[in-house]
Design goal:
single chain; mainly alpha; two-stranded antiparallel sheet; 3 helices
Amino acid sequence: MKWQDYITSDPKILAGKPVIKGTRLSVGFILNLLAEGWSIEQILENYPNLILESLKAVFAFVAECMREELMRLGKHKA
């Protein structure tokens, strides 16, 4: 999954927060919905401009961010 095909960041849209391309739905907003207990099906139902691949891209984006952060933290411990 190339999250770059679905996630973008533009200083003119939501102050540069990462969003799903073609929407004003931020990665953080989607994660908050999931944290509140929404299912993927509920998100897709309520936001019909989203597709399953765009939600998978959110997960891939966050996973990559976490890997980079863990690597950065690991380098500072040495």
